[in-house]
Amino acid sequence: MRIWIANHYAAPPHLGGITRHYELAREWATEEQAEVTLWLSSFNHVRRRLIREAERGSADIPGLRLRWLWSFPHTRNDFRRVLNMVSFSCLFLLAGCFRRRPDLLYASSPHLLTPLAGWLLSKVKRCPFVLEVRDLWPDTLIQMKGLKNSAVIKALTRLESFLYRRADKIVVLTEYQRKFIASKGIDPHKISLIPNGIVPGSWHPRESEKRSYRRRMGVDPYRFVALYAGAHGPANALEHVVRAAVHLPAECAIVLIGDGPEKGRLRHLKKELGLHHVHLLDPVPKEEIYHYIDAADCGIISLADHEIFRGARPNKLFDYLYVGKPVITTVDGEIRWILEENGVGLFSGAENPQGLAEAIKKLMNLSQQERDRIAKNGQRYIERFGNRRELARKLFRELATLLHSEIKQMEEVNRSG
């Protein structure tokens, strides 16, 4: 099977960012003997710069090709980011027209222009179109007040409905997304839940390196470290995470790893409040982030207090649990249910610095026996629901069934014609 995967924000693990599509592509190429082409942007959104050819590396996996497309650089969420989206989508559409026809085209949000280009290409190439919904646009933009123009909202809402209706299959990452899309009159049978996950064996603990990664974080060995790893944007509500340090004793530290438009403001807030036990670090490659998590004592998941995020299930949830760390979430909804149902973490209250500090102190006072139990519970959850190899295999079977059904329909049409 020849599969095209298009995601504007996809990245190989060594660059950091969204590695889901690279890992799916790798599994399909190695385990299912598929020919997979991953279309991705040469502008890295975590580092906010163009990635030079020498930095891109090679997939070096038989059956997997990486097609890098230029997209307009940007540093803020202004018109340049819109140009970034438009340029990638247009170049994907143009370049795809001159490539060998795939058997199936798989295009991912969050923004809808890449899936639109994917649908157009699927018509040109006469192959099934699969829409992956990573984020609910335009609803997330509206909730975050990042989109107020009524004409643009109307256009994006129509495009969203159009893509839902025209997709041969829709893949979602959370149960909330599945229910949300089904509520719009979309056949639930064509919506598949394939959450984020972890590739088993992608990381192995190295006790000897914990002290080294503690030094890289800038924290002393005796401190209790609460770690946030991920985007630093308005949706992540990290101001409240930084402010939580005001309510923490000196033996606690908060470390934030990542980048985004809010990072400068967070640095200013740290300085203004004199929070020497808050550490703001640059992004690190995916293969290193596990060592940072392992050197910490708990993980933090933070999102703004909006209804649209109640159904979030971020990839960092799986990273924290895979390494065996308890998790604190500021999000009341699907994440909170997972943490409490599986005994792997706490809900601290939404946008509540003092509540987050209290949750950190509660985890700091856990016994070693309680920590070990949480680690085992987390690993058990990953084995059952977060094994990316199993998830990739499940999705591939569904795509193969879809392709077989499409071929059968075409043969019936040809016979009747």
Automatic annotation (TrEMBL):
This is Glycosyltransferase WbuB. Residues 213-380 form the Glycosyl transferase family domain. Residues 16-197 form the Glycosyltransferase subfamily 4-like N-terminal domain. InterPro entries: Glyco_trans_1, Glyco_trans_4-like_N. It holds the Pfam family Glycos_transf_1. It comes from Kroppenstedtia guangzhouensis. It comes from the Bacteria.
